[in-house]
Each structure stands twice: as C-alpha cells, then as structure tokens.
Amino acid sequence: MGMDYSKIIDWIIAEDSFNPETLGKCEAVMSLGNGYLGLRSATEEHYLNETRGMFVAGTFNKFDENEVTELPNAADLIAVDLFIDGERFSLDSGEIKNYTRQLNIKTGTLMRSVQWTSPKGKQVDAKFERIVSLKRLHTIAQRITLSFADDVIVKVRSGIDGTITNTGSQHFSDGDKRFYEKKYIQYVQTTTQSGIGFVETTAHELKLDGSTLEAAAEIFMDRRKVYAGYTAEIKAGQTFVIEKYSNVYTTRDKEYMDKDIHEIQEISLNACKTDIQAGYDVLASESGAQWDKEVWDKAPLSIEGPAIDGFAGHFAQYHMRLMVPGHDNRMNIGAKGLSGEGYKGHTFWDTEIFLLPYYIFTAPDTARKLEEYRYLSLPGAHAKAAHNGYKGAMFPWESAWLDDGEVTPEYCDVDILTGKPVKVWSGFIEQHITSDVAFGAWQYAVISGDMDFMDKYGYELIMDTAIFWASRLEEGEDGKYHINDVVGPDEYREHVNDNAFTNYMAHWNMKKAIEYYHILKENKPDIFAKLNKKLGLEEAYKAWEDGCSKIFLPVPNDKNVLPQDDCYLSCKDIDLDKYKKQEHVGGITRDYNLEQINQIQVSKQADCLVLFFLLENEFSQEVKKASWEYYEKRTLHDSSLSLSTHSVLASDMGEKALAYDLFQKASMIDLGTFMGSSNAGIHAASFGGVWECVVYGFGGVRMLDGKLRICPALPDEWEKLSYTIIWKGQKLAVEATKDDVKVQNLTGTTEVEVEINGEICKL
Ligand code: BGC
Fold it and tell me: What would the pLDDT profile of 582-595 be if each residue is shown by its tens digit?
C-alpha cells in the first residue's frame, strides 16, 4: 500500500491508499508547476499533517535578522472545504473505497478520486482534478466533480488563506482583501522585508448536471482570510461540479515590475475572468499541449526496457521543467525546486554540476539564463570575497536573490553529543562552488557554441573566479600553494586541507583563465581591454601563472587511490555495514557527531569521483577504478547527489550491472516507495543525476576538452535507448542498441564532428 506503479506505461504515477500520516510524499513528488510558480499537491480538504505550499520563483524574503532569506510560502488558493448534509468531507473519518491519487506527468494533471461514505452514511463519488498551466504561467485551475447516492445539501467553503507560513515564519504583511461582483476574491500580501507585493485572485463556477448554478455566494473576510460560501441542493444521481480558477502575480515579475499594485490587481482580476471563459478543459488541454511542445517533443527520451526505467527518465524531465525559472535570468533553481520549504529555495552547486547538463543539451536558452543569473549575482560574490579578505568573485555556497551574497543558514540539526545545534560550515568554507560556477559557464558555452554569452558574461565569470582562487592559495613550508581549511563536496569532512576536488578545480579555473587571456588578447582586443580595465588582467595573469605552477595537486598513492584530502586515508576505518545497509539516509549522524565522523574514513557523497567525472581526461582509468572501489565502500550516499555520479562512473568503467543497480537506486530517491524522504520537497539535483545516468552513463555522451563523444553502453536490461541532444545549435538524434549506435543530425545546417565509439565522424 502506498505508491502505485501500475499505470506508469501511461505516464501516471499513483498512490493507491490514503494515509494521513504520509501526506508530504505526494504533496512533493506529485507537485505541479511551471518554473514561475510551484504548487505542492496538498488536498482540497485540510488534514493535520499536511504541508500546503505555493512558491513563486525568486520572491525571497528575510523573516528577521536571525534567519536567512528564503522563498516565502504564499497564501493558499487551492483549499476547498465541503460539507455534505452538515458533515465535513474528510478521509480521516467515514469509509473509503476505490481511492486513487495520480499525477499524469505527460500532461501535468493531478487527479484524485474516491468513493466516500460519511460517518452518517452519506455516499459520494468525488473526483478532484487540478493543473498549473504551463502555457499561462500565473494560472491554476481545479475541478471537483461530485455525485451522491441520496438527496443532499452541499456547502462549499473556499477562497484564499493567508495564514500559511514557512513552518511558523510569516513572511507577509496583510494587504487589500476584496470581493468583486460577489464572485472574484482577491487578496494582496507584501513580503515583510523585501517588500514584494503578491496579488492572488480566485473565483468559482458551480455546475449542476452541466448547467451553471447561479448560487449566490456568502462572502467572508477574516484575519488573513477571504472566502466564499455556497450552498447547493443536489438530488441523488445528479452531478455537481465546482471549478476554481486562481492566479498569482507579484511585483517581482519582470513584466509587471514597473506597475503599481493596483494595476497588477486589475491584471490579476482580468486574467481570472479570461481563464473562466476558457474553462477547465481548455486550460488543461492547452497546458498539456504545451508540455508536448516544450518538453516531450523537444527532448524525447525513450528506453526500451523495464517500464519503470523509462518512466524514471520522464519523471526527472517533468520535475526539471517544474523547477526551472526559464522565464527570468534573475532566478535560479532551488535544491528542492519549487516543491517545498526545504533548503529555503536556495541555489547550490547542484545547478551547475547536476542539472545544467540537461538544460544545456535540451534547452540551451534556459541554460543560458541559469548562467546569466550567476553573472548577475557577481556583486554578492565580490562582497563575499572582500569580506573574507580575498580578491575577485567568491560565490556563495547557497544563493538566493542576486545581491544577497551568502545565505547559508549558520545552524541546522542537533549535535547528538552536545545537544546543541550543529554549525553549518558550508557557507564559510565549502568553496568549490566558485569553480563549479566557472565550470558551468564554460560547459554551457562550449556545448551550445554561444559565443555571445562568452563575450558578455563567460570570460568575465571565468576570470573573476580565477582571481579569487589565486588570492585564496596559501604558501606552505614545502613551497607549494595549498588550499587549507575547506569542506569539499563530501560534507562529512569539515576543515580539511587540500581537498582534491577543490584544488584540481581551482587549478582548472586558473588554467582556463590563462587560456582565455591569450584568446582575448589575440582575437578580441575590445573585450580584453574592457576586462583588463575592470579586473586588471595583466596583474591577474601573473597570479594565475604563479598559482597554476605551484598549486598542490594531490597525486594517487601506490594503490592508485587519489587522496580525497590530506588526512582521509589516515583516518580510522570502522565497520560501516550497518549504515551501508540502512533503509533511510543519515544513520551515522544518529550515532556519531560530525567531529567524530571527521575522524572516520566515511563519506556522505561522491567527492573525488565528481572530479573524475568533470575532468575525465586528467586521470587514468586505473586511478579512477581504484579510487571508485576505495571510496564507494566508505560512501553512505547520504546525499541524493551521490548515487548518480557513482552510476555514471561505473558505466565509464564498463561495470554495466553495477551502473544499472546504482541508476535504479538513484531513480527511486523521490519516485520510490519510502513515504518520508520527500516531505521538505523533491531532490532537484537527483533528477539531473538520473538524466546523467541515462544520457551520460548508458548513453555515453560527454563533452571532453570541447569535443563531443558518444559511446553508449546499454545495461543488459535495455534493448534500445533513444534521445536527442543539441550540440552547438544542431539537434542530434541518438539511437543506441546493445551493439549499434545511430546518430543523425536533425538540424543539419552545419557539420558536427563527433567521436562515436572511438571513431571521428562528421554529421
Ligand atoms: C549535499 C550538498 C548539496 C545540498 C543541496 C547536501 O546534503 O551534501 O552537496 O549541494 O545537499 O542539495
């Protein structure tokens, strides 16, 4: 009982039973959205353990000085309370039959149906449908269809509820509340610190056996609440339909920034009227068509093999569309997308390393926006560098609004030994994010061929970050430059020196800057002059050369294992069996505190392995294999970013069965049967990881030193894998079977050079 995979062939993920204790799972994994707004799939009626959530990308607010800025949870628009002959419709009581809740990821529609008998014996067949339009970014539409076994009086109570908080932190001041024409309900809120106005409008349409029911609304206004009440007399066998049309607009929306709130109120009201005129079916079908146009036709992915594998790929694509604010370059992707309060809507390295490849290869315009966001947030990165006594751009580990700078919370969780909150060091010393950003910009530009991006933003990003690294290096007694006191990707190791990932990526960053210095000087003197003035390239160049020649780059030991940092390999080994077999992540943190974990050879997630993945050509196959084996044994995959990297590298090593096993595990992080792991929101990066397992791992795609390589190796369970990728503006269709691969240039306007299974081909 729980998740139901019987309809995945029809692109449907379902839940087959109602459990009021595990509501968070489907609220998050079945959430709806369009990158502008994200809506958790909470039910129409209320339950004790529900977490309602609606988030509008980029609308950050800081609740008070003791908290960091976060994405506020906006007033709820989707609740509808129903009373049948005075009894509240609630699955907490009465009798439930034929329950299902399901999300169709192809069309982005949520549906729930149930036959419910109330405690007093009233029977109702209820169906609830909902969409967030992919076509009209502000629109939410719902339809509730009810039919009864007896004659009943149904009361409906529904409107807008502004008592919603982020787990207690109320981010909004109450504003205008209004009924127009006794039908349209409008509520205005303003975020308390960032001053962003939110306008929400909703209205209902009631229908009895297909004819509009002109029931007059009783109207209510309460503290932070505006709602309507309707009463309808329904005869046995009649069909009663309640449609609810809602929208949200904010003063942060690019197209409404220069309008005052009253104008936006009018826009919102009119949009609600237009949506009602269109009607639920039209809104749903045009949104479904948009899903085809934007996602399924544009980036087809098909696996001939176990149906769940193909579904997992599509489920990843579904969520990657929900989470990405492709409409606005001032925003980025949150670690939980727009599906929950977890990680406060903040952006991490998850974007560049795990998610960006999907967008670059399938929706380069969107990818460009994600990297423009980094460029636009340079002021925060400069402030962080200056604050820490460094030069250049030091990107925040967690990032929110453009000029916020570092927003990582300082404390989280509890130290099991001291009982005090655990200090989060990432915001201070998890510094690899800076080269990850540079790597992302480079990767985007090379794969897309977008030189305009490089001219306007890319060179500067790479050089400004390289300036940071040159200033960050510390000269050791050995005459080498070290990077001490950091957290690498593996967050179970704090305050380490010479984390291999950090050092190699810093080296890469400075080397790239040197390369671009020459390219600009020789070929693009205008840009060179501009950046020279802005960044002082001549001086920076000397520091990069010096940095590159003296930076300490850890070398593999005699067993070919690359030391993750200067002390990992000399820490003690303990029996990790219990944690390796754990059903839920984080078991070790309930037995040891972080200081103790630091003394153990144990990893939360892939660390050196991410390095092998990004800089594949710099390490030998022997080193990769030996290191994979050494670290995997000690890795608990306590971060959702870990399994996919392991799977891709296992594919690279020719370990197909292992790669497949890890892929399956990675794809079940949110999709799987564990009902507790997604409460705070889905794991955004893990979806990018799933796509990487399929297209990079089994599909064999990689951009290496600026060149495209395709070298598929399908798992035994698959007959065929087909996908498309866009390489420098040319869309390539790849069809791989166990012993053959066909690549076709669908665009065909320029020739593409690609290495296919070791052979250079021109398409
Ligand atoms: C991981 C980080 C990741 C963050 C957000 C943490 O648990 O250790 O690598 O960036 O989650 O997804």
Answer: 988 999 999 999 99
